[in-house]
Amino acid sequence: MKSIKMVDLNGQYEAIKGELDIAIDSVMSTTSFINGPAVKEFQNNLQEYLNVKHVIPCANGTDALQLALMSLNLNPGDEIITSNFTFASTAEVVLLMGLRLKLVDINEETFNIDPISVERAITSKTKAIIPVHLFGQPADMEKIVKIAKQNKLKIIEDNAQALGATYTFNDGMKKKTGTIGDIGTTSFFPSKNLGAYGDGGAIYTDNDFLAKKIKILANHGMDKRYYHDLVGLNSRLDSLQAAILDVKLKYLDGYNESRRNSALRYSDNLRGIDSLITPNIPIDLQSHVFHQYTLRILDSKRDLLAEYLAKNSIPFGIYYPVPLHKQKAYYSPEVDDKLFRVTNRAVQEVISLPMHTELTNEQIDYITEKLIKFLN
Ligand SMILES: *Cc1c(COP(=O)(O)O)cnc(C)c1O
Q1: If pLDDT is split at 50, 70 and 90, which confidence band does 283 have?
Q2: Ligand 1 pocket: which of 60, 183, 187 to mutate (most atoms <8 Å of CB)?
Q3: Rounded to an integer, what distance in angstroms lies between the CA atom of residue 116 and that of residue 113?
C-alpha cells in the first residue's frame, strides 16, 4: 500500500501532468505573467461553471473576503456576524477593517453557523452575515437568506472549502454555493478542492455595481490607469496560476465525486461504532464536496486517538483546535463563553481523516480498521 497522505497533490499532478505542462509552457512563451489571457479565460470558465455574472480573480481567499467587505460601504463599529468555528481569515478581515466581530455558535450536525444564534446576535448595527460552508458542506442558506432579507443584511459566503457544492432550496431551486448571497469568496490554496500551485482566490457576484467596485478595489482603487478613485489593494491572480486552475477546473466535478465516494466508504466502514459520530451526509449528495471528512470522537478520547494514528503512520488534522473567541488575537472580555456550547465541544471532539482525490479503498479500509481497533 502507498503511504497515506493527508492531501496527495503529487498523485493528482502526475495524472494530468501533460495538460498542465502545456498550459504552463504557453504562459512562459507569452511571458504575460500578470493579467495575461489565461486569467481572463479562467475567469470566464469559472463564471460559466458557477453560473454567475461576475468572477473577479484575486491573490488569495483572505483578500477575497477583505475585498468583499471593502465593497460594502461599511463604517467602523458596524457589526459582522460569522461562525466561531472557521479558519481565522474570516474573523481577521473583519477586525482589520475596524469592524465589530460578532461570533456565533454552530449547528451540531453540520458544524456550520447556527441560524437561531445568528438571529439572536443581530443588533441595529449589524450589516452583514458571513456564513462559511465549512468542510465542503453548505450552511443553512434557506434560513440565512430569510434572516438577511428580514433585517436588510448583506451576505458574503465564504466558499473557500466548498467550491463545486450545490445547494437546493425548499422549492427545488438549485444554486452553487457562493452564488446565493450578495458576494461569494473562494481560495485556491493548493489543498482546497480546486487548488493552484501557489496562492490564489476569487470573488463572485451577480451584482454589476459590486463587481465593478471589487475589480477597482483589487487594482489599487483605479479604474483608469494611474487615477486612484478608492483606497484599494494590490490583489491579483497571476497568469501561471490561472492557466493551472483552468486545466484543473475541468476536473473539479470529478474530483468532488471522488471525495464523496471516499467519504461514503469511510462512513460505511464506521457504521455502528459507538464512540464516534460520522459526518452528516446530506441526502442530495451534490450538496457536500467533502473538503474534509471530519469525525467527532466522544468520551474525551480524541487526543489519544490522534497519538495512536500518528504511531500507525495515518495522518490527520484537527480543524480547529481553538474557537476564534479564545484566540489571543480575537479575544474580548465582553464575549460570553456560554454562547458557544456547540463550538466549545466541537474543538475537543473533531478529527479530520485523510481526504483527497487519490485516496484508495485499500487506504480507507486500513484507516478505518485501525480506528475501530483503537476505539473497541
Ligand atoms: C483557506 C480558507 C480561507 C483563506 O484562504 P487563503 O487563500 O489561504 O487566504 C478563508 N476561509 C476559509 C474557511 C478557508 O478554509
Answers
A1: confident
A2: 187
A3: 9
Assess if CATH 3.40.640.10 describes domain 9-104+111-249: yes
SS3 content of the chain, % helix, strand, coil (to 5): 40, 15, 40
Judge if pTM exceeds 0.85: yes
Ligand 1 center to residue 187 CA distance, Å? 6
Domain residue spans in the chain?
9-104+111-249, 252-375
On the question of pLDDT at 200 being above 80, the answer is yes
* Positive or negative: CA dihedral 350, 265, 175, 69: positive
The residues pairing with 54 across neighbouring beta strands, listed in sequence order, are 205
Place of cell 489519544: 304
- Which amino acid appears at position 191 of this protein? S
Pairing of strands 54-58, 201-205: antiparallel
| Dihedral pair phi/psi, residue 274, rounded to 5° | -70, -45
Protein residue with least CA distance to atom 3, ligand 1: 61
> Are 348 and 363 in contact, with CB atoms under 8 Å apart?
no
DSSP 8-state secondary structure symbol assigned to residue 144? H
376 three-class SS: coil
CA dihedral 132, 142, 256, 205 (to 10 degrees): -70
Q: What architecture is domain 252-375?
A: Alpha-Beta Complex (3.90)
Residue of minimum CA distance from atom 4 in ligand 1 = 61
Q: How confident is the model at residue 284 (pLDDT cuts 50, 70, 90)?
A: confident
17-30 and 37-50 are packed helices; what angle lies between their axes, rounded to 10 degrees?
130
pLDDT digits (tens, 9 = 90+) for 123-149: 999 999 999 999 999 999 999 999 999
Which of these, 151, 105, 103, lies nearest to 127 by C-alpha position? 151
pLDDT over 90 (residue 298): yes
CA nearest 127: which of 213, 68, 51? 68
Sign of the Cα torsion 344, 135, 58, 210 reads negative
> How much is the average pLDDT of 331-339?
93
- For 224-279, what is each residue's pLDDT tens digit? 999 999 999 999 999 999 999 999 999 999 999 999 999 999 999 999 999 999 99
> What's the maximum distance between 2 C-alpha atoms anywhere in the chain?
67
Compute the distance between CA of residue 208 and CA of residue 287 in angstroms, rounded to an integer.
27
